[in-house]
Amino acid sequence: MKPTQGIEALAAEIADVARTSFRTLFENGERYYYCTLFTTGEGHAPSISAWSWEALEREAARQGEESDMPGSTIAELIKWSYADSPYCCFRDEDFDDVKQLFMRRPSIAELEADEWNREFDSRLKAMELAMKMLDDEGVFALNQPREAEINTEIALRLNRAESPAMQAWLVEAAE
User: How do residues 98-126 score in pLDDT, each as one tens digit?
Assistant: First the structure.
């Protein structure tokens, strides 16, 4: 399979799983400001992560109790961290079929630099396209305020640059 072959199909498979995962997560009634698909530097299959204002408050308070740092300072430090979210890898087991699809793609570890970059970019593009599909369906508008994704370029493609949430993210992320 060529690195760019089947990106739309891969994106559709990612979107199908992510749709179910995000919708299930949103059933808890919390107010989400951050939803993302993330991968490793090796381009493994994606996982989801999200932050709600309620989860941020709980996690900052919990970490504050374990340190000398005020909860408000901790909240600012972890606010955009997919890895610090209690919802990091939420329903990751649902991504097993997507993991198999990624394993059928060219082995990124065995590729030369240019081919590695193309394959990695293709995987990121599939993830971005999946998020766009979900956004176009209104998944992230289901009782959730719109915010930004991690990567600035992707975030700007998926969010209105003039939105207050995007502007806040750009300032806070020092972008």
Answer: 999 999 998 888 999 899 999 999 999 99
Query: Can you tell me the distance from the alpha carbon of 22 to that of 48, in angstroms, rounded to the nearest whole number?
Result: 8
Count: domains in the chain: 1
83 inside domain: yes
Residue 163 within a domain: no
Structural domain includes residue 168: no
Each residue's pLDDT tens digit, 4-22: 458 999 999 999 999 999 9
Question: What pTM, to 2 d.p., does this model score?
Answer: 0.77
Residue 174 lies in a domain: no
